[in-house]
Amino acid sequence: FVLIACAGCGQKSTSLQDFSGEEFIMNTLVRIQVICEDEEKGRKALKQAFDVFRKIDHLTNRFPEGELATSSPGDVLNINGSAGLKPVKVSVDTVRIIQRSQYYARLTGGAFDITIGPIMDNWGFGKGIQYVPADEEISRALSLVDYRKVEADPGKGTVFLPEPGMSLDLGGVAKGYAMDEAVKALREAGMKHALINAGGCVYALGTRPDGEPWRVGIQDPRSNGDIVAILSLKDSAAVTSGDYQRYFEQEGVRYHHIIDPSTGKQARDLIQTTVVAESATDADILSTALFVLGPRRGMSFVEDLPGTGAVLIGPDKLVSVTAGLIDQLTFTGNGGYQIVG
Ligand code: ADP
Ligand code: MG
User: Fold this and answer.
1) Among candidate residues 256, 259, 255, 241, the one with its CA nearest the CA of residue 114
2) Which residues contact 192 (CB under 8 A, 6 or more apart)?
């Protein structure tokens, strides 16, 4: 192994060093690995990247814990707290996250909807007790879910939810946005090789030091720790959503955290989606959106999006892959998955 590794590195990379760190932010383990020659620069870049994740967490978190809970409320808490009352002045980051989300909400006919907050609360995701809500509870909450009602004014830098009880939940996009901003910070610090993994949201900056693309495993959604395929990545993001990341079980049924806004209930036509794109924000939004759209509508939607690839896995273990992504994928053959199309 050592011999192979050395042969792969070559002479010129002998002075390269690996700086890695992990911190628990945004309810997930954020792992950042940077590889560069200069120790001081590498450590500084690493710290800046973690700072970005913490900043976006503060802006977007609906249920702050620990240090966040004692600091001043972030934008999403302020927006939700002022629903039906008044517009709230927010940071440029928050406006950007909302605008991008709204763009995809329109494109997907509301499959992605950041006003999903009241429904998430119903099911007890985020806080409270997790249980299956009665249909009346769901329809009451659903009446508050509609991305078209969000009034975001980029000129004034304000956001307003016009009805009391409405609430934003940026859980389907915030990690991706934080990722893009962290990558920007790493690039500005001169980093040429880095890999970030934030709970299924991955970004490969540049190549590995040996010039080869980074390789990232796509998890087996039904066997923790196994992988279905290996994805080659360079200067792009791969974001995975699954029905096993946050869920509870009641009477043998799994209730997970990706909700179809048209029903207020779990989207069930897929069990895992992976989206590859240059922007982690887009990939994050789309992994959630495709999960809701399901294999048929999801594939026809994503095949039309330039520069975007997807791997969709259904409950029947059938795997759909966009044509442009095939060359970047190596299937392991594990787990009995079958590629269709
Ligand atoms: P993870 O947070 O595990 O990475 P996702 O990116 O798929 O997974 O995001 C799921 C989160 O997105 C949920 O916890 C919730 O906050 C939010 N969400 C759930 N359903 C939707 C939806 N239809 N549209 C927008 N956001 C959603
Ligand atoms: Mg997402």
Assistant:
1) 259
2) 35, 36, 205, 206
Report whether 101 contacts 173 (CB < 8 A). Answer: yes
CA of 192 to the centre of ligand 1 (A): 31
Per-residue model confidence (pLDDT) at position 1: 28
Question: Which stretches of the chain score pLDDT less than 50?
Answer: 1-13
Give the pocket of ligand 1 (CB within 6 Å).
Answer: 112-114, 116, 120, 125, 169, 171-172, 175, 199-200, 241, 245-246, 257-259, 261, 284, 287-288, 292
Q: What is the pLDDT of residue 140?
A: 97
Tell me what pLDDT residue 10 has. Answer: 43
Which residue puts its alpha carbon closest to atom 16 of ligand 1? Answer: 171
pLDDT computed for residue 14 by the predictor = 57
Return d(Cα 259, Cα 339) in angstroms, integer: 26
**H helix intervals, 124-245:** 135-142, 174-188
Looking at residue 3, its pLDDT comes to 35
d(CA 38, CA 21): 16
pLDDT given for residue 69 in this prediction: 84
> Which pTM was predicted?
0.95
HEC sequence for 53-76: HHHHHHHHCCCCCCHHHHCCCCHH
Q: Coil, helix or strand for 220?
A: coil
